[in-house]
Amino acid sequence: MFHRIVVATDFSECAQEAGALARRLAAAPGSELIVTHVLAEVPLYGEGLFNIETARKVREGARKWAEGALEEWVGKARAAGLNARAALRTGVPHQEIVGLAQDERADLVVIGTHGRGAIARALLGSVADRVVRLAPCPVLMVREPA
């Protein structure tokens, strides 16, 4: 059994599937579900497009939206009788997911994958692939529904 399960979400349909599977796994007695989302640190200003105040407002809006969305996921898990909590992080997604798994001493990370081909993965990278390579525990990758 897995006692501490980290489920990472970008709130996509694929992540919804991963979340549903993580909730089923977390139904075991004594299990805890940690739902996480990572806000990527992307510069929002430069070359006169945005000023610093606009960038701050955009980031704050994204943070509030993500907090609300995470609480919906946690609420759904708690309504099903699960022990669940949210963990919102900011940074490089795969690094933050791996860091959370380490910090929480997770037994399992559940993450969705869009199942891109090798060329797209090489060009775009894959958060899920990087988490698999770096995580301190097993990682369950959930494919996007067909």
Structural class: alpha/beta
Name the helicity range. Answer: 40-55%
Q: Helix and strand string, N-terminal first?
A: EHEHEHEHHE
Oligomer class: single chain
- Average pLDDT for all residues: 87
Using the alpha-carbon principal axes, give the shape.
Answer: globular
Largest sheet: 5 strands, parallel
Structural notes for this entry:
- The protein is of the alpha/beta class and 146 residues long.
- The protein is built from five helices and five strands; from the N terminus they run βαβαβαβααβ.
- Helix 1 links the parallel strand 1 and strand 2.
- Helix 3 packs parallel to helix 5.
- It is globular and about 50 Å long.
- The two termini are 29 Å apart.
Output the keywords:
single chain; alpha/beta
Topology:
Elements (H helix, E strand, L loop, with lengths): L3 E5 L4 H13 L6 E8 L12 H28 L3 E8 L2 H12 L3 E6 L4 H7 L2 H8 L4 E5 L3
Parallel strand pairs: 1-2, 1-4, 2-3, 4-5
Helix pairs in contact: 3-5
Short summary:
The chain is of the alpha/beta class and 146 residues long.
